[in-house]
Amino acid sequence: MKVIGICGSPREGNTEYYIKTVLESLNSKGHETLYIPLRSMKIEQCEGCYGCVKAHQCVVEDDFQAVFKHLIEADAIVVGSPVYNGSITPRLKALLDRAGFSARWMKNELNTQNGKYDWGQMVFSRKLFAPITVARKTGQTFALSQLTLWAQVNDLITVGSNYWNVGTAGTSGSVNASEDAEGISIMAHLAENIDFLLTKMNAS
Ligand SMILES: Cc1cc2nc3c(=O)[nH]c(=O)nc-3n(C[C@H](O)[C@H](O)[C@H](O)COP(=O)(O)O)c2cc1C
Question: Which CATH number do you get for residue 178?
Answer without folding.
Answer: 3.40.50.360
